[in-house]
Amino acid sequence: MTSTATKSSCPDRSQKALCRNPFLSIKFFVFCHGLLQLSQLLVSSYLKSSISTIEKRYGLSSKTSGLLASFNEVGNTLLIVFISYFGSRVHRPRFIGCGAILVSLAGFLMSLPHFITGPYEYDQSVASVFSNTTDLCQPEGMGSSGNLSDSICAPHTARENHEVLLVMFIAQVLLGIGGVPIQPFGISYIDDFASERNSPLYLGILFSLTVVGPGVGFMLGSGMLRFYVDIDKVAGDEVLLTNKDPRWVGAWWLGFLVAASLVAVSAVPYFFFPREMPKEVTSGKEISSKKSKDVLRQLKSRSENVQNLSLLQFIKYFPVVLLRNLRHPVYLLVVLAQVNLSAMVAGLATFMGKFLERQFSLTASFANMIIGSVNIPGAMVGIVVGGAILKRFQMSLKQCSAMCVLGMLLCLILAFPSSSLAAPHRRLPASPTERALSLDTTPQSAASNVTAPRKPTTPSVALMASSTSLPVTPAAVLSVLPTTQSWSIQPEDKSFAVGIQFMLLRVLAWMPGPVLYGSAIDTTCILWENKCDRKASCRYYDNNLFRQRYLGLQFFFEVGAFLCFVMVYVILRRQEKDASNVAETTTDPEKKKLAENTRKSPESNV
């Protein structure tokens, strides 16, 4: 029975070789590419899950850590423009494999600072988690014996910090460069050799993995940060801290080793895939009308014309297409709305863990678990709902813009309750320490803003804060945007317009977004830790101001996106009205004659 099935599916030798060789199967390519995309997203999202831990370990400000988190976009932006040029001119699977190797190398480099620096030495001035004794406000001489600023300041310390930052920034650049060919080349390869019936299914699988990947990355961070940072250098009985201690630093480097190893394993199959493989043939009848075939033929001829351009002609042609698309008001406004939403999401995702840790006294591990299990699935629900609404109602361009306006209005309404979702603050009791602060150079008003350690907030409140900071609605709006853009530009410019869109998003949103959020968070710091006469990480924040500015930036970007969508709706409504008026005048001869007379009347008067 098995032999007959084999004969029917593989009648000759060539078909048998095709069946036996997995590297000639587009299904196996989809499996490998899904695994690679998931592994790549593990590397990039894991950094965001451990960013507050890296800040604490190496004394970084939030602005610096935000720049580090977004620095991979630098390498990505420099090369993303040329991807639409190279297309099928190169061996796409091998380029994907080389990019994956760079991503793996970037992951290993991100963990390198742990091995080139000494063991973590925490502040000994705090006796324990439950002790009220701290050097927070003690004048010089009272608590300096245990202060890190005086005890471990050595000439090599500053050099180590510079080396750590240099290695991490180089790793981020490599991560951006390596990620350039993975998704565009993979999607185009699947689209070329998959059947028209199965191609949407394969691309849908890859898209779902890009949504799931960040959630898996945060869950990986939740697991790794439960281990002590120097688990490989210090015996377990020598660690006197628990993961609930504010001085605790988890094994942030361990997750990078896991994710980078997965990327390295996923890169191997790509060097065995051919440059071109046989087109997939399905057993079922593929229904396609003559109109769809004509459209596909036109699109293929246009893409072939673009591929026939030389590199110099392509570079000259690109600014022309850029200006032509940016002059289109609907396309420009939709891209600006997406810039606002993407900058908001980039900043929220980078510092969401830190926000939950500071506002609700959660551990870094538990904060990451909340983000990975509640926030990311919420975004997935929003994307599915937005796509389902589009498919169910077959919405026009004007209706899509109206949906975006209503979605952003709902976001603005939901943004107000989230500003009050924080635990009440308890002021430090009056003590000799506080009185000493009033005699020190630090302003006395700072004492009233310092908050004492408080009991962790109940998980339900933290879950509410996490889910409302990045609600389902923006994800639903983001799922509508590609349709809005694709309907508002010329068909021959679609591939270029997508490249322009991602370039603008990287330059205007994904790169500056985390830096802007980090700078705003730094302005809420009350007490900075000093290492070797330089400002290091913040030790205490004004939590009220932290919450107001963190959520205030979210409200600011949502207002910007809302105004852009309102203008898009107004423009489309005016265009629709003008089109209907033109249609009426062409169908009605009397109105057409009247319109011609009104045009001629000013000339006759002259």
TrEMBL record:
Biased composition, class Basic and acidic residues, residue ranges: 588-606
Pfam families reported for this sequence: OATP
Record keywords: Disulfide bond, Ion transport, Membrane, Transmembrane, Transmembrane helix, Transport
Domain Major facilitator superfamily (MFS) profile as annotated: residue spans: 26-578
Domain of life: Eukaryota
Localization terms from the record: Cell membrane; Membrane
Region of interest: Disordered: 432-458, 578-606
InterPro entries reported in the protein's UniProt record: MFS_dom, MFS_trans_sf, OATP
GO cellular component, one term: basolateral plasma membrane
One record GO biological process: monoatomic ion transport
Alphabetized SUPFAM superfamilies for the sequence: MFS general substrate transporter
Ranges of compositional bias, category Polar residues: 439-458
GO molecular function: bile acid transmembrane transporter activity; sodium-independent organic anion transmembrane transporter activity
Transmembrane segments: 23-47, 67-88, 95-116, 164-189, 201-229, 249-273, 330-353, 365-390, 402-423, 550-572
Bilayer disposition of the protein: Multi-pass membrane protein
Cited PANTHER family: ORGANIC ANION TRANSPORTER (PTHR11388), SOLUTE CARRIER ORGANIC ANION TRANSPORTER FAMILY MEMBER 2B1 (PTHR11388:SF87)
Family: Belongs to the organo anion transporter (TC 2.A.60) family.
The name this protein goes by in its record: Solute carrier organic anion transporter family member
Organism the protein comes from: Meleagris gallopavo (Wild turkey)
